[in-house]
Amino acid sequence: DPETVTLAGREREGERMMEVDPPVVGGGGSASEAGPAESQPVRATAVEGEGEWELPGNLIDPDIDVELVRPPAVSERYYQGACFFCNIKDTPSHDQFVLQHSNGLCVIGVAASHPLRDPAGPKVTAVVFRKDLLSNKPSGKKKIGASWMNELSPLCDVTCDDGSTYVLYACVRGNMYEVNRRLVDHPELIATLGDTEGYIAIIMPKRDEKKTATEKLLTQAQYNSRPPFPNALVNAVGVQE
C-alpha cells in the first residue's frame, strides 16, 4: 500500500532511533511528486526508558495547506443537541439542560445560565439528593425498581457558601436510572464541570415517549436567542406543575 507509514526501530549508542517514510499530505499527488524530501527519512530520538518521542517540528511541507479537523466528542457523536428547561417555576435564570442519547437516555444537568454556574457567584458547598433517590437502586437490564420522575420532580437541594439554596428538577418524564453520587463528596463539580462530570442524573423515558421527551423544551438555538424573562418562550410551551 503506497500510503502505508513504515516504522523501523533500532538501537544506536544507548538511544532508540525511529525512521518514518513521510506519507503524502494534501493534494493527492504520487509519491514521486512529493519532492526530494520524500527520499529522506524523518528521524526522531527518545532517551531510553522514557515514554514519549520528540519529533522535529516541521514534518509537513509548509507550502501545502493542511486542514486539521478535531475528532467529534462523545457528546457530539452519540447525543442530540442539548435542550433546555428555562426559568423553572417562573424563577429567572433557573435553567437546566437535557442531553438525550441516541438510545433515549437523558442526562440532566445545570445550564450555564443558572446562578450555580456563575464563576463570580457563591460557591457550591453541598448537594443533598432526595432520600428516596439515593436509596433507590434499579436492578437488571430492565432497571426494575427505578423511581418514576415527572418534569418537576425534585432531584436534589444545592447549598452555597452564602446560605442560598436551589432545587434541581428532573426536567423530563421517565425512570430514574442513576444520580451522580460524586456530587455528594464533590459538590463543586456542578459549577466547575457542569456540562460533563457535574451532571445531576440520568433518566430513561418510556419507550413510546423517547422521541417526544424533550419536545416541550427549548432547542439550543431558542435558548441562545430567548427573550428576557418573563416573556421567555418556555413560559408558553414549558411544562406546568
Summarize the structure.
With 241 residues, the chain is α+β, with helices and mostly antiparallel strands.
What is the fold's blueprint, element by element?
Layout: E1 7-12, E2 15-20, E3 42-47, H1 74-78, E4 83-85, E5 96-100, E6 106-110, E7 124-129, H2 131-135, E8 148-149, E9 154-160, E10 165-169, E11 174-179, H3 182-185, H4 189-192, E12 201-204, H5 220-224, H6 234-237
Antiparallel strand pairs: 1-2, 2-3, 4-5, 5-6, 6-12, 7-9, 8-11, 9-10, 11-12
Largest sheet: 6 strands, antiparallel
Strand content: 25-35%
Strand order of the largest sheet: 4-5-6-12-11-8
Helix content: 10-25%
> Structural class of the helices, strands and pairings?
alpha+beta
What is the mean predicted local confidence, pLDDT? 73
Oligomer: single chain
Question: Could you state the order of secondary-structure elements as H and E?
Answer: EEEHEEEEHEEEEHHEHH
Distance between the terminal alpha carbons, to the nearest Å? 64 Å
Question: Can you count the helices?
Answer: 6
Q: What overall geometry do the principal axes of the alpha carbons give?
A: globular
Q: Could you tell me the radius of gyration in angstroms?
A: 26 Å
Which blocks of ≥5 consecutive residues have pLDDT under 50? 1-60, 230-241
Beta strand count: 12
